[in-house]
Design goal:
This protein has 439 residues and is mostly helical. The protein has one domain (3-9, 24-114, 153-373). It has helices at residues 27-47, 62-65, 73-76, 79-99, 104-135, 140-149, 155-165, 167-177, 180-197, 207-223, 233-250, 275-297, 301-312, 314-332, 346-375, 389-407, 419-433, and strands at 48-53, 56-61. Strands 1-2 form a two-stranded antiparallel sheet. The protein is globular and about 60 Å long. The chain starts with 26 loop residues before the first helix and ends in a 6-residue tail after the last helix.
């Protein structure tokens, strides 16, 4: 990262466009974020099938046993779209920070606060309940699967904190080189996939930044209007993205499912492959094609209310929607309230669909309570005590989120919590949140 980004002083780059030329807030981006949040929750609720046997809960990935579900991941895999709309938000936020004369460190701290505070509340509740269940006499074998299942969505934060941190320098590159940055990142992602396919699996993790970095650059191009200049751009992105995705999955070596499941040697999302770049391009194109209808929809009060509610509670919904699934399973499965049908049959599919509103109802009180932290982020972002503190917080938080995703929030130690990952998160949070009010 360039050294000048760490200095506690306003940037010396040319100022952003004057107020009259600033891009107006695109409300369709907010609606797209709300739709994506719903798609994430619904997709997980369809795919993850809770199970209960021998007084133990577990979760089964339906993609493994119901092949007909795999093409549906082309609809419900919306992580590229999340990073596209995130790119729009990061560009707008950074441009506003520069107009106010804020430093990179102050800006980064404000972005991290929006992630850390809801996550801290979620971890405290989940780890506390896991520890309480252990103290009540339940074994680690019983508690661990549940404590892991609720934190599955946390992987997103591990990647997002890094993508947010590199947004300002990548925005600078975008302003100088435009879509050539997208091409360069895509070529690098293709090279990473080639090395991964050659047998060096660990190299694939570089694509978390490269693949979702491409999505963020598309968001930059949306924000500054490059994608809106020509009418045919939307259709070119949609057709080109879908065509590339079809070739990669039907002619190339990539599986059709864009969400991983046990079995295939190659996983398209953990770490991501270039299939998600193709999907992100197609999703951006589709969003632009639908943009006139989305703009009209945003004039309707119910749509405005839906969009506002989802955006104000975005992090809370993403963090807690697996908990809603677990709560329903813990109550319903031991009582035999969920019928057990043969996998993939019409009755099985119907059961999955009927459970969706049940999960949603279980999520509502969780969002109402836990969402207060996200809806009330404080009185504004103070300056960090040290300009390096939020920068150092990023890799610490990324590792902590990754460890929590892999290991869950139940540990074998005397406290019943994974001490190392919780301590890392605590240290990263302290670095990110520490600050003093501006004079």
């Amino acid at each position: 990262m360039p050294a000048n980004l760490l200095v506690e002083r306003p940037t010396t780059e040319p100022a952003e466009a004057p107020p009259a030329a600033r891009p107006a807030r695109d409300l369709t981006v907010d609606l797209l974020r709300a739709i994506a949040i719903v798609a994430v929750a619904v997709g997980h609720w369809l795919v993850v099938v809770p199970s209960y046997a021998d007084h133990r809960f577990d979760g089964v990935n339906a993609l493994e046993t119901v092949p007909a579900m795999r093409p549906l991941t082309w609809v419900f895999q919306v992580m590229p779209l999340f990073f596209v709309v995130g790119g729009v938000a990061n560009a707008a936020s950074w441009a506003g920070a520069r107009r106010r004369g804020e430093t990179y460190a102050t800006w980064l701290r404000s972005r991290l606060v929006r992630l850390v505070r809801p996550a801290a509340w979620f971890f405290a509740v989940a780890a506390g309940l896991a520890a309480a269940l252990r103290a009540a006499g339940l074994t680690e074998q019983v508690v661990a699967p549940v404590a892991w299942l609720v934190v599955v969505p946390v992987w997103f934060l591990s990647v997002y904190v890094m993508v947010v941190a590199i947004a300002p320098p990548l925005w600078r590159l975008h302003r100088r080189h435009g879509t050539r940055v997208v091409v360069a990142l895509t070529v690098a992602a293709v090279a990473v996939d080639a090395v991964r396919l050659a047998g060096y699996e660990a190299v694939g993790y570089l694509n978390f930044l490269l693949v979702f970095g491409v999505a963020q650059q598309l968001g930059f191009a949306w924000y500054d209007g490059r994608l809106l200049r020509f009418r045919d751009t939307a259709w070119a992105l949609l057709v080109g993205g879908l065509g590339a995705l079809w070739l990669l999955t039907h002619v190339g070596p990539y599986p059709v499912s864009l969400v991983g499941y046990p079995g295939p040697e190659l996983d398209n999302n953990a770490p991501p492959t270039i299939t998600l770049i193709a999907l992100g391009v197609a999703q951006t194109g589709l969003a632009l094609v639908l943009r006139p209808w989305l703009q009209r929809a945003m004039t309707l009060r119910p749509v405005q209310a839906f969009t506002l509610a989802l955006n104000r509670n975005a992090m809370t919904v993403l963090l807690w929607h697996f908990t809603a699934l677990v709560l329903v399973a813990v109550v319903a499965l031991p009582l035999g309230l969920v019928p057990d049908h043969e996998w993939g049959t019409a009755a099985w599919w119907w059961t999955r669909v009927v459970l969706l509103p049940v999960y949603a109802l279980a999520l509502v009180p969780l969002v109402a309570l836990a969402g207060r932290v996200e809806r009330d982020p404080g009185n504004g972002p103070p300056r960090p005590w040290r300009s390096w503190a939020p920068v150092v917080a990023v890799p610490v938080l990324a590792v902590a989120f990754g460890l929590i995703t892999l290991g869950g929030l139940s540990g074998p130690g005397p406290l019943g919590v994974p001490v190392a990952s919780v301590a890392l998160f605590g240290g990263g949070s302290a670095l990110a949140l520490s600050g003093r009010p501006d004079a």
